[in-house]
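A quick aside before the break. I want you to see a complete sequence-to-structure record at least once, exactly as it would be stored in a machine-readable document. Don't worry about memorizing anything.
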Amino acid sequence: QLQASGGGLVQAGGSLRLSCAASGFAFASGSYSVAWFRQAPGKEREGVSCIRSGSNGSTYADSVKGRFTISRDNAKNTMYLEMNSLKAEDTAVYYCAMRFTRMLLNVCLDPSPYVYWGQGTQVTVSS
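That is the input. The structure line, written in tokens, reads:
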């Protein structure tokens, strides 16, 4: 089970940190890919960032590179998305997702392979 939190209303240029708490499995073991996705009204769900088990290899959508940072705390069994320099176009519902496969970084931003999804947290950036 995945539980996303940390969304809210922030002014453009501000920061937020999203959390995704996992239960029923441990980040410290096994093979998996975990990712953040977002979906704005009227738009398709898009991959934001993903991170895999083992190495700290991660990838980001071009639209968030240099502004967002994904991380994982194995002790807390929680994944984070640090979002800085937020823009109005970052406004969306953000979801965390997981698959028990260590996917290649060039495909881990595709939502279709992911099996487990959190409930989503709203991020609104005012301009």
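Two observations worth writing down. The longest strand covers residues 92-99. The chain has a mean pLDDT of 94. We'll return to this after the break.
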